[in-house]
Amino acid sequence: MKRLGLVLATADEDDRRHLVGLAAAAAGAGIATRVFAMHHGVASVCADPAVRARLAELGCDLVACATSADRAGVDLAAAVVEAGSQDDHAALCAWADRVVAFT
Amino acid sequence: MTATVLVVIDSGDPAVVDEAWRAAVGLTLRGARVMVATRPGAAPGTAAAARARATLALFGHGVDADADAVDADVVEQWRDGADRPGRPADRADPTVHLVRPGRAVGALGPGDRVLQLGDPADVDYAELLAAIAAAPVRVW
To answer: Which residues of chain B make contact with A15, given a CB cutoff of 8 A?
Structure first.
């Protein structure tokens, strides 16, 4: 496995911690990781600066669904999170050798 | 090779059901074959879900898949944690099941592996990653 995709759609703190744990293990093994957040995952990751900082530190791309952000009233630019679309979701699944979806 | 993405709808919350259907449509955008399976007892979605279902069907994707019979490269299980009836899986390929606390695996197939996702502080993520590398993953 060379590429890991992670999808976050929940507001569950443990899911965010598992996501970061997997991203860190992947980084340690030389595996590239991308994260796509949608639904409740957008607000939860935007409200958790420690998670965003850790993912950045690990070199993980983080993209959040702009539609979910709009619905939740989340300002992605203020959180310094890249705004994306469902196309990014599809692209992540096409790119990754393995996907873990916390949905 | 065309990837197969399975979206399992297993929630009593219509908003989650709508979101799962929206995701399913989005997942077609890079050429994947998308299959959607709705567990018995899941909530019906709203009109948005019905539109998404019709769109997927129009483009030849599966909208009445069997969650326990489809071999998929990627599985997204949109769940609320309720215990809904499953049946023994008859998938051909092994799956790695990641099980959150208080939840249960709905259906196991031959060669499947079950790993409990406990307190994140206690999880060996390197070991988990090695398991994940071996087979497609379903999170419960």
So the answer is: 100
